[in-house]
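Known limitations

Files may contain more than one protein. Parsers should not assume a single record per file. Below, a two-record file is shown to illustrate correct handling: read the sequence, read the token line, then continue until end of file.
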Amino acid sequence: MSGLDVAVTRLLGMLLLLFACLLGFIALSDEVSEGETQDFDERVLRALRSPEDPAVPRGPWWLAVSAEELTSLGGVTVLALVTLMVCGFLALARRYRTLLLVLVATVGGAGLNLVLKRFFARPRPSVVPHLTEVMTQSFPSGHAMLSAIVYLTLGGLLAQLAEHRRLKAYILGLSLLLPFLVGLTRVYLGVHYPTDVLGGWVAGLAWALLSAVMARTLRRRSPALRAEAHKPVE
């Protein structure tokens, strides 16, 4: 298979996955809006708390501490810091066009999350006490969605710099693992329903895929951006 055939196949695969994510999010948000998932969501949250005291999470004491520490990996402060550090690296490497793509993908994703939260306006869970502070609406989970956007976008960027397949697989694996762990902590801490997190994952993946497709399209049309992508890091 030629290089062009491989590129076309990858692009089609990304588009199909993007389409599946969009359909999945529409179906999930419809079920959430109609209250069809409420019973399931509340059962899961109750199952993660002590029957005697819903303020006490199940598991050893260190699990709650670890969850609070891990959940910060999906917070705005940490994600903004990670993004700025990567942008600093791109600036030093004189990859200004790639830097702009990263900013558009991350800032645009954050804006989309705010729009979706205000549109659905789902209240935070009240069935169990929250183990950490929250301020915005519940659906979709901002931590799950933004961590998926940032880590997948940056992971895809780093994977392009890796030469060996095992390194690419390792980077992309970590990019998927971090949002997964962040999402689980939001449910464990009682600040999100499971469907909030699932919606955040799906929406975040869809935005990351859309950003990747747009970046590929721009790279094919822009010789300067294509040359920048293949330029060795000095």
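...continuing to the second record:
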Amino acid sequence: MRMKIVALMCAMILAAATTSSFAAGKKQVPVPATARNMTFKSLRGVQYCEIWMLVGSPETGITGHYFNTSNLNDGTNKMDTCPQAMWSKVDAKALHDDYDTYTVFKNGPRGWTMDSVTIPVGPVDTFDGLKARWWGKGVLPKGADFKKGLEPYKPLKSHRKSVFTFKKGEPVFIIEDAQGTPWVMQAFSKIVDPAMSYNALKTLGDRIKPASGWKYRVAIPEKDLVVSTPKGYNWIVQDEFGNTYDACKEGACNFQP
């Protein structure tokens, strides 16, 4: 009996070692040990993309590390940091096979609606020829899945130390929730509607169907609107087109727009 137990334990140890070696054969997601602050200016309307590398599982909780192309890949056009010819070569499945991830998601093309951002970022990494930097991580609760992006009108906590600035006199695109909290659009998406553009956002309210009690509006602030992360995170939400908004709550905004 003792010999059988020893044999069983040896088999379990060997199986665990084999599983570990397979995981070790994959690259680790390149999350920087330390990040450095950078300021990106003249962003309004600039196109970018993100590669989301997700680790964990729905049972344990999923963390999505996102790598942003801003200020990169723009040698021929400063308004486009995610040229289609380069973006089309990024293979999410191949990246998932190379890296130790739950899944990999291509988030883009997208376009900024703010004027500048200051944020700690990682060094430049290259994915299938496309350059990007680690910008932060999104944390999903246990039981939540992430295969095709965020579910519309379901808030997600995004962990980052960022400062978004929207210049006075420029339009700010807002979706207001049922409690009256304004969520300020940080970026529009071309994933659902490839024809989506910055200019189309002024009339987006005619197209979207917000969750019950939510409404879309456009504001023109008389002073700079600053959206920050005083607690090291902010709440974000997306509409059905994949446009992303940051919440003006928990002291994140310098005023309620």
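Parsers that stop after the first record will miss the second one. For reference, the second record is described as follows. Residues 73 and 83 are 7 Å apart (CA to CA).
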